[in-house]
Amino acid sequence: MRIKRLETMPESFDIFLSHNSQDKPIVRELGEALKKRGLTVWLDEWELVPGRPWQAALEKIIATTKSAAVLVGADGLGPWEEPEMRACLSEFVNRKLPVIPVILPGAPTKPGLPMFLKAFTWVDLREGLTDEGLERLHWGITGKKGKNRQTSASSTKTATSEETITWLHLSDFHFRADSDWQQNVVLQALQRDVVAKLPEFDALRD
């Protein structure tokens, strides 16, 4: 089982969740919500292997994660969260690591963020793990806004379809003026071998 875990562990996680252990229940819930959005999430209780030095694991994830979230709840930063935050800020300086302050449910109206953390745009989840709040956090993690992600995927599909179909115009073929039967044979072959296999064929046929 240990070998299998090592084989399936991502080389780099999308997000590292730095948090106060007092906030563990809501942090766990947040991690699950991000997983459902297709993100790879590093949370200590999910990734720290028993019997291994956890400090080395923390150093590795902070050095390799694609983004980091510093979670602030009712009790503020935890005893290990502050050095984690400083390490993440150091990675921001070294490699532009996105560092996202996240205000959790139960946090005060004016959370006391450390001076350097105040420089980063934060995500407010004090009203709960709402779709709007999670979408904003997703944006911070990936750098892509929800609408842009959908538009990008749609544009990619459209471009692929158009590139596939553009060469199916009759003007690209050269037939004799009296060779209608040749045109029919070519079109039937194209429909059978190419167009019918395209996802858009049903729409084109309609």
Can you give a write-up of this model?
With 206 residues, the protein is an alpha/beta fold. 49% of the residues lie in helices and 9% in strands. The protein has helices spanning 2-8, 24-36, 44-47, 54-64, 81-95, 131-142, 146-165, 180-193, 201-205, and strands at residues 15-18, 41-42, 68-72, 99-103, 123-124. It has a five-stranded parallel sheet. Helix 5 (81-95) links the parallel strand 3 and strand 4 (99-103). Helix 4 packs parallel to helix 5. The radius of gyration is 26 Å and the shape is globular. The chain starts with a helix and ends with a helix.
How many beta strands in the DSSP annotation? 5
**Alpha plus pi helix count:** 9
Structural class: alpha/beta
Radius of gyration: 26 Å
Main sheet strand line-up: 2-1-3-4-5
Largest sheet: 5 strands, parallel
Q: List SSEs in N-to-C order.
A: HEHEHHEHEEHHHH
What ranges have pLDDT less than 50 throughout 5 or more consecutive residues? Answer: 1-7, 151-177, 194-206
Helix fraction bin: 40-55%
- Beta-strand percentage? 5-15%
Taken from the alpha-carbon principal axes, the silhouette is: globular
User: CA-to-CA gap between the ends?
Assistant: 52 Å
Average pLDDT confidence is: 78
What's the arrangement of secondary structure elements?
Elements: H1 2-8, E1 15-18, H2 24-36, E2 41-42, H3 44-47, H4 54-64, E3 68-72, H5 81-95, E4 99-103, E5 123-124, H6 131-142, H7 146-165, H8 180-193, H9 201-205
Parallel strand pairs: 1-2, 1-3, 3-4, 4-5
Helix pairs in contact: 4-5
